[in-house]
Design a protein that fits this description.
Length: 533
């Protein structure tokens, strides 16, 4: 450089006080001949000698010095400047993003063939780019993978964007709908009407559901019409208005609604028929009372039965409403909470609520199974089908099925004595064991033991289930086998009051009897004895 001594000093001061990495590099010797204070500080170096030793392995990560020199030399043959963004590492291992610029120094007297190297820290800029990229990825995941059809259109009602669900819903390939009018997705007969509604909406857009109270239809690519629910939204970007339709296929929902209407009509007819039947029977009873005084006792018994039936219905309705409400509420609340955890890292929270939903559905299934079992028993539709049963195998398999109900540190212990086989109905015996074990687990605390004992002799088979639970009062023991009966000390524990009633009925079908031994806060033992003689 043709500088006077003063000029050289000024140049040196300017370079030394530059906030950027500034260095002069000689590609012939593969060394820096100058590196300012900022450059040394950026790479945690004390002097130029340390810098050349450090950069000998390469200025950029994963690239040798020779490779870097070749890349720069080739570029400078056709361009005035070489510039690239890359990751850099200091001697201590600290990594940062930087933008390196290289220019060829043209002043032959002092720096012939030398390069002017500038390096700026762009860590903040790179972090912003990464955040933007992640935001785009999240938007794509939310939009493209949403479990509903999303269709975006511009002010001219032309489709500008669709997600995968919408393409599949209407039977189109990816991007096939782009540029088409929104009327493409509507019934042909409604195209003109829709245009008029669209003009009104564009004049005064608002976020709202579409077609409240109407049976909305949409049209697939093959012309098939199907029922939909649509919500509308809008936004403005760069002075342009866009409108979004969120579309759900409710064909199945409509089908269920129609089936419910038909069922309700059928129930109404049955109720009317039942009311008429009750009226007819009452009239017949009144006439019988007038004509046959001797049948008074029989009529009183019939009325008593009617009263008992009414009470049973009332208890059934009250119990069913309560028992179904609890799991349904759990399902609804968990399903709502899942929507609040859309992020991948929140999978554990979603799993927690999914587990609650599965548990509630399982509980509903058990309740329905009990109701169905009682109905079949009352109608005499359940019969015993005898076959040879291997006792330990049956009990162990059944206990494995109920083990998922165990509370913290609860355990099941099984003891068997006598012969291993006898002839009975395997399915009914298994259901008896499941009912008794489920009750024992339900009414026992954590860290308790439930003992299952079986004994087989030539004349009888005995099954007993002993727990360490809350026990049953002597007064409640008198009614334990009644339908829907629940002890006074279990009102805060979920149940239908049908379990022991079903056990007693199944035991009767197998030619046996059930007995109970219990004390409050000490535990309960239920014994089933089948006579084999």
């Amino acid at each position: 450089m043709n500088c006077t001594s003063l000029d050289q000093q000024l140049c040196h001061v300017a370079l030394e006080n530059s906030p950027l990495f500034v260095g002069i590099y000689n590609p012939d010797t593969h060394k820096f001949v100058y590196l300012n204070k900022t450059g040394l500080k950026m790479f945690e170096l004390d002097n130029l000698e340390q810098a050349n030793d450090f950069f000998l392995e390469g200025l950029r990560n994963n690239e040798s010095l020779i490779q870097w020199e070749l890349q720069v030399s080739e570029h400078l043959k056709t361009s005035a400047e070489f510039c690239i963004d890359d990751s850099f590492t200091s001697p201590s291992g600290t990594k940062f993003w930087g933008r390196i610029r290289v220019k060829l120094l043209q002043e032959p007297d002092t720096a012939k063939g030398h390069w002017l190297v500038n390096l700026s820290d762009i860590q903040s800029e790179k972090h912003t780019q990464i955040q933007f990229s992640e935001g785009e990825a999240r938007f794509e995941a939310l939009f493209m993978h949403a479990a509903m059809g999303i269709v975006m259109m511009d002010k001219s009602s032309k489709i500008v964007l669709t997600n995968r669900y919408a393409n599949a819903l209407f039977g189109y390939e990816t991007n096939e709908l782009l540029g088409m009018p929104i009327e493409t997705l509507l019934p042909t007969a409604l195209s003109e009407t829709h245009r008029q509604h669209t003009e009104k909406y564009l004049h005064k857009p608002q976020i709202r559901p579409m077609g409240i109270g109407l049976d909305l239809k949409a049209r697939k690519k093959d012309g098939t019409l199907f029922s939909v629910e649509i919500s509308l939204s809008f936004f403005e970007q760069n002075g342009n208005q866009y409108f979004i339709s969120f579309i759900n296929d409710i064909t199945y929902k409509k089908k269920i609604e129609m089936e419910m209407i038909l069922k309700n009509q059928e129930i109404k007819k049955l109720n009317e028929s039942l009311e008429q039947e009750v009226m007819n029977r009452t009239n017949a009873l009144v006439e019988t009372l007038k004509d046959l005084e001797e049948s008074k006792q029989e009529l009183e018994l019939a009325l008593s039965k009617e009263k008992e039936l009414g009470e049973l219905k009332s208890r059934f309705v009250a119990m069913a409403s309560h028992e179904f409400r609890t799991p349904l509420t759990a399902i609804l609340s968990s399903a709502s909470l899942i929507a609040k955890y859309p992020k991948t890292e929140e999978q554990e929270k979603r799993e927690k609520h999914l587990h609650r939903i599965k548990s509630a559905v399982s509980n509903l299934t058990d309740i329905l199974e009990e109701f169905l079992s009682v109905g079949k028993l009352e109608e005499g539709k359940i019969e015993a089908h005898l076959a040879l049963v291997e006792i330990p195998e049956l009990v162990n398999d059944t206990l494995a099925d109920v083990s998922n109900l165990l509370k913290k540190n609860q355990n099941l212990r099984f003891e068997h004595s006598g012969e291993n086989e006898f002839i009975t109905d395997k399915s009914l015996l298994r259901k008896i064991i499941i009912n008794l074990c489920s009750n024992a687990i339900k009414f026992s605390g954590e860290s308790s033991c439930i003992t299952i004992r079986t004994e087989k002799s030539s004349s009888h088979f005995v099954l007993s289930v002993q727990d360490e639970g809350i026990g049953i009062s002597e007064e409640d023991q008198k009614h334990l086998f009644d339908r829907f009966f629940r002890g006074v000390n279990v009102t805060n524990i979920q149940g239908t009051g049908l379990g022991l009633h079903i056990v007693a009925k199944y035991t009767e079908l197998l030619g046996g009897k059930v007995s109970i031994s219990s004390k409050l806060n000490e535990g309960t033992t239920v014994t089933v004895q089948l006579d084999l003689a």
